[in-house]
Amino acid sequence: MSSFLNVSENGNVGIGTGTTEPAAKLQVSGGAIMPAAGDSENSGILFPKDPFGGGGDRAWIRYYARSGEATTFEIGTSDNTDDHIALMASGNVGIGTTTPGAKLDVAGTIRATGLDISGSLSLPGSDLTILNLPDARTSPPGSDLETVVVDKATGKLYMQ
Predict the structure, then answer these.
(1) Which of 46, 77, 103, 158 could crosslink 59 through cysteines, CB 3.0-4.6 Å?
(2) Ranked by mean pLDDT, which of 26-40, 83-97, 132-146 comes out on top?
(3) Whole-model pTM?
(4) Cβ distance 46 to 60 under 8 Å?
């Protein structure tokens, strides 16, 4: 007779592991782990609250329907409902927003060590300032170009 549930002396639990000693606190073989779907605290995978002594810190992984078949797979960390990451079925990723409107939608400041744009660049409602261009090609060659500013109001490009 096969054993479907094993509890080892060290407290590890094996489901479907046969007579094999479970290698982790919970090991499942021959099947899936299926948490409840939904966007409530009682759904998905919920990590312990305030594990590092904070106040109201939470982390979770959830899968839920927003409406009809429009679903969200959500990985969240927060001490309020606005601080999390959302991965959408559309392929859009939101950081600081639950409704990303582009492939990457960040509600906040972005810092990057590089930026490679192979299409168009749109900056609605703001000017563009690019600082410290050490590898910029300048005319005449050898001139010192450190800043490029695009004035959104006038459409003029200023190089300094």
Answers:
(1) 77
(2) 26-40
(3) 0.50
(4) yes
